């Protein structure tokens, strides 16, 4: 199970916050640092952007949307539009058995 944690809990002692939370079966979810935003990695052509996999042709403004907001390069409305445009670029890998072979016709 995952649970969002309040930023005040970043300074909590492991004995009073982290360990009891883990013992209950939860794992904390923290925000990314500013230097961790944007492209975080890649695999087989897919790009990991802000924790989600996207196709390699995702436009650069969509990659840098959150960093641009935090660095005050864009306003919140522009950020929202860019983040809302990301799902059309989400990477969906092919799954075995998820395709139908085509029959090639010998007729013209």
Describe the structure concisely.
By secondary structure, this protein is an alpha+beta fold.
Low-confidence stretches: 98-108
Total number of strands:
5
Specify the biggest β-sheet.
3 strands, antiparallel
Terminal CA distance reads 57 Å
Summed up, the helix count is 4
Cα gyration radius (Å) = 20 Å
Which geometry do the CA atoms define?
extended
Proportion of β residues? 15-25%
Give the secondary structure arrangement, pairings included.
Elements: E1 2-4, H1 14-23, E2 27-29, E3 39-43, E4 46-49, E5 52-54, H2 60-63, H3 65-70, H4 76-85
Parallel strand pairs: 1-2
Antiparallel strand pairs: 3-4, 4-5
Give an overview in words.
- With 108 residues, this protein is an alpha+beta fold.
- The protein is 28% helix and 17% strand.
- It contains 4 helices and 5 strands.
- The strands form 2 sheets. Strands 3-4-5 form a 3-stranded antiparallel β-sheet, with no helix packed on it. It has a two-stranded parallel ribbon with strand order 1-2.
- A hairpin with a 2-residue loop joins β3 (39-43) and β4.
- The longest helix has 10 residues, at 14-23.
- The protein is extended.
- Residues 98-108 have low confidence and may be disordered.
Which short descriptors sum up this protein?
108 residues, alpha+beta, 3-stranded antiparallel β-sheet, two-stranded parallel sheet, 28% helix, disordered C terminus
């Amino acid at each position: 199970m995952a649970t969002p944690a309040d930023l005040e809990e970043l300074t909590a002692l492991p004995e009073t916050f982290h360990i009891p939370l883990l013992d209950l079966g939860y794992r904390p979810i923290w925000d990314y640092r500013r230097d961790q935003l944007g492209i975080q990695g890649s695999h087989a052509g897919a790009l990991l952007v802000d924790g989600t996999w996207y196709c390699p042709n995702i436009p650069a403004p969509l990659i840098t949307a959150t960093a641009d907001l935090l660095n005050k390069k864009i306003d919140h409305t522009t950020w929202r539009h860019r983040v809302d445009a990301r799902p059309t670029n989400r990477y969906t890998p092919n799954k075995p058995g998820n395709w139908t072979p085509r029959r090639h016709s010998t007729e013209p």
